[in-house]
Every structure is written in structure tokens, then in C-alpha cells.
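Continued from yesterday's entry.
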Amino acid sequence: MNTNYILIKKVLIGLVVLLAGYVLYLLILSFVSRPSEINIDFNSIQGSAQFSSSIDVNQIESTPSSNFDYKVVGFRAGPSRASVIVQKNNQTFVVQQGALLENKYKLATVNSEYATFEYNGNLFQISTNLIVDN
């Protein structure tokens, strides 16, 4: 068996040259078919937008809740923080100032005389006087 190494070498070199030529063709094609440049011209902003600060709010007409029959069990009124403990239907709630009572009534203020709750613009005051007069 007589192997012709020169022929095998020429065939392999020919395949490498063909492959290199194909890669060079793809490289030239990628340069030629590049996307065209898009000129984007951003104009400077001439004026500032003016927004109206007035917001129209449609208020819901609601009658004062007749079921606001909470009873104060205890309270803590301090200069910076205050809380109140109220009871309704054998349920006890501890509410801090600014928090909601039953996700509805916001505790606005607490002092030694009254606890004030707010709901839909209506104010509800309950007495914090825990001494029962007979």
C-alpha cells in the first residue's frame, strides 16, 4: 500500500483555504450589510410643564355611623404617643394614635377627656373618663 502523503497534504490545505475563504467572505458581508445610522435629534426642552395642584375629590355622602358604640376600657395619653383600648361586643381592640380601628376608624387624638376617631370626614368622640359616677 503506497500512501501518497503529498496528495493528502494538498487536499487538507485546500480545505483549510476554502474554510478561511468562507470565513473571510462572511466577515466582508457583515461589514457591508451593517445597519444604517439613525440620526436622533433631541431638541432641548423649552418650557417646564405646569401641573395643577388642585385635585377634585368626589366626597362620598355618608351618614354618621350609628354602630360606633365602642366603650373605652383604658388609654395612655402622652406628649408624643397615645393609645386607647376600646371594647365592642365582647371584642377588645388596642389602637395607637394614627392607626385604624377595624380598618375603618382612624384614631386622631387621645387626651384625659376624650378619644377622637375620624371616618370619612366625620369625627367620633368617646369619653376616656373611666370613673363611673353613681
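--- second protein ---
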Amino acid sequence: MALDISVKPASSGSELTTFMKLPWKLYVGDPNWVPPLFFDVNNKLNKKHNPIFDHAQAEYFIAWRGAEPVGRITAQIDDHYAKHWGPGTGQFGFFESVDDPAVARALFGTARDWLKNKGIERMQGPYNFNINDECGLLVDGFDTPPMILMTHNPRYYPRMFDEFGLKKVQDLLAYRMDAVADAPEDVKNYAEMIRKKEGVLIREWNLKDFKNEMARFIEVYNSAWEKNWGSVMLTERELMAHSMELRYLLDPRLAFFAETKNGEVMGVSLTLPNLNEYITQLNGHLYNLLPTMWYPMVVKKKYTSCRVFALGVKAEHRRSGVGAVFYYDTLMAAKRLGYQWGEMSWILESNDAMNRAIRHMGGVVYKTYRIYETAI
């Protein structure tokens, strides 16, 4: 006789540990899964530590079959999303489940009911916890591992989303680009023309002035992405929480600011070495090493791939063409540093201009992530 499925909040410390460790059970035999780092997941789920909870609330749920954990999900409401896009939308995330539609239905239903009881009218996701974090369900491109700070899931997840009645609301595209080939000649010529015409200065990030560089980054981020679908403003506290991580993740030779002749910041481009090439070997553990010890050790390793993590231009400079200069300079830097290929991700499928530009540069969509929605 099959045991009934129950879904309960993960309220105790041991239950939260069960919530965090569930993927290690579900992804056995998946060579493309990259185990997340325990300390990173713990920090993100810690409501006292993660500054997103200055403006958001969430509940964590575990699905049980008897005494066996078989799935998990979060339900969350972000006040900053509501202020920007209007009230009525809640999110779900951190979804994991065994291949059993009954488990998925129970998880989605529990998240839906929690949101409904909070007065929410529609449920959207997956977000871990909002669009500034890892988000989207992988629906195409299961045959390769994810890039740093991107998601991965089994092939059966999209089916379970569909069966519950969740509908596509937006696709997020990941492009693969060869870092060995030369840029198209017209792209090179256009970038050099814009550099001279607009007086654009491209400079590397100054790690000795990192606090101010991060302030410049958030200035561009909140301007460049403000009107993008689903965007949520980054707060100063959230910025500071990410600062230490980015300080030790980025390679300044792949991180650029664009400035005018007068020193005004026009835009930012941030490309990260694909640390997943190394993290996958750690199985979630850092063996009590401090981030200040292991991040430099990791970054100094030789990587074959990198990810264009953020590329944005402030609203008033959007028509300047500086994006083409970023594309070209990033490609040239990656070639000099010996990278074989790079991922540009993620790009909203509705961002026609960006998609055209990347395809013209030689980028090919090789992974697709999906955001779903359903009325409550």
C-alpha cells in the first residue's frame, strides 16, 4: 500500500538541513549536476542573513512520503516586485521532486495555497528567490552542465510543471559563443567607430577601489535593467551581501566599465570564470576554508569557459552603441586569456535587440530556461 504524501514547513534546524540536502538524493547519476556549496545555500535560506528578507517573506516546504523526503519548494512574496510591477504576484522557487506527479502537485498546491492565504492572485517562478538570483526551469539543453550561477534540473520537471497547469510566461536564453574565432569584421569596425565617435573609454574594474566600483555597478544595474521584464531593484544591503562573493569571483581582466571622456559611467560588463568547472569536484564542501582563502585559489585555476554575467548600459546612453564595444572587448580579452568558449546568459526572449546582436556575433542558443505562471 502506497504511503500518503504530506507537505510540511521546514521549520526546525534539522528540517532545514533536510531541505538543503535533498538534491544530493535526487541527482544521483546525473553527470551534469553541479552540487551547490552548503555555506552558500545556507546563507541564502537564512532569513536573518539574507537581506532580501528586508522586503520579502517566504515559507519553505518539504514533501514527505512517510519518513522519506521526496520534494521541496518555497513560496515567497517580494514587496519590491509589487512596488515596481503592481500587487497580486507571488513567487515559488527551490523546487525539487522525485519523478512522481503526485509529489509535484502536492508541492505546487501547497505553495499556491500559502500565497492565496496572503491575498496573492497569481504564482510565478521558479525564482531562488527573485530574478536577481538563480531563476528559470531548464527546458532545453540538458546534455551539458550549467554555468556558474545558473540552474540545472532533470528532464522530467517541465512535464510536471505543465501537468499542474503552469504556463510559460517568459523564456530566458543562454547563448554559447566560441572564444577562439575572430569577431565578425563589421562588428570590429562598428565597435572601433563607436569608441572614437562617442569617446568611449573601456577600463577594467579596480579591485583596490572595490567598494566604489560596486556602487557604480549598482547604479548601472538599477538603471539599465529597470524596465526589463520582471526586474527587481537591488538594494544597498543586497549589494553589500554580494560584494565579498563578487570580489573573489571575478577576474578584473574580464570586467569592464565604459566611461565618457568626462569620467561619467555609461555601462558595465561583467564576465565570470566558470567556477563550476572546479566547484563540481567539491561536492558542496569547502572543508572549513574561509572564502578569502579559497576564492583566490579557485579563480587562479585555468578555466576553459566563462559566462557574461551582466552587460548593461544606463538608460541615457542606451543608443550610444557602447554595447558593441563591450561585446568586442570581452571577446578579445577571453581570447587573450585562453578561454575556449563563453556563455552569454541569460537573455530575455523578448529582448529583440540583444538577441539580434548576440546572434550576429556568432552566438547560438544552447540552453533555454523558462519562467511559468498560473492564476490562483
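The chain has two domains: 5-172, 177-370. The chain has a mean pLDDT of 91. Will compare against the first tomorrow.
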